[in-house]
Amino acid sequence: MITAVLVDDHPVVVAGVRAWCALADPPIEVVDAGPSVAVAWLDPGASADVVVLDLQLGASGVSWGDLKRLVDAGRQVVVYTMRDDRETALTCLDIGAFTWVTKAEGESHLVAAIRAAAHNEAYTPPALSGALGTDTNPNRPKLSDQEINVLLSWFQCESKELVAAELNIKVSTVNSYLARVRGKYASVGREAPTKAALVARAIQDGLVTVDEL
Description:
One of its GO terms (biological process) is regulation of DNA-templated transcription. By secondary structure, the chain is α/β, with parallel strands linked by helices.
């Protein structure tokens, strides 16, 4: 069963998310929840597959530092927030959040995002799709045609083995191309350590549209 820990300081939101996850098919277990990010670092939350994080806890402002520390520790973070502006969405992705869901998008998109994060499968909710479509970030890495071909094929295939077969190259070559793409993104300050993050970068840079995924 997929497990999640919820960091949110609104009891009504916590109760709602717990209910949505319990009723999901298959169910998602919310192992802990609380108003402080500490619940994500302490058992049982420390071992949860996914961290659902509200960006604004109490009167302390936006918790960018908490998000970055979780991402740096290798956690899969779904940001779930009242903030619905483009800058917040893109900053979350730049820091390394798995995805960004507004609280207005509700049950279906949050549950789908948690499930996708647990399986490391790309998921782009409607609000995030809109934010990506208007991104004007000038820091575009220069990718070769073959790097782009491998990247786009990987988005549409279930495994690197299928990418290799489709492009008639070795799996090791696929890995090399993807490593180079990640390196190029990192060099311009836009790290993309996961497949989901690479999908987000590709959408931001106009290499692919949400409808093509």
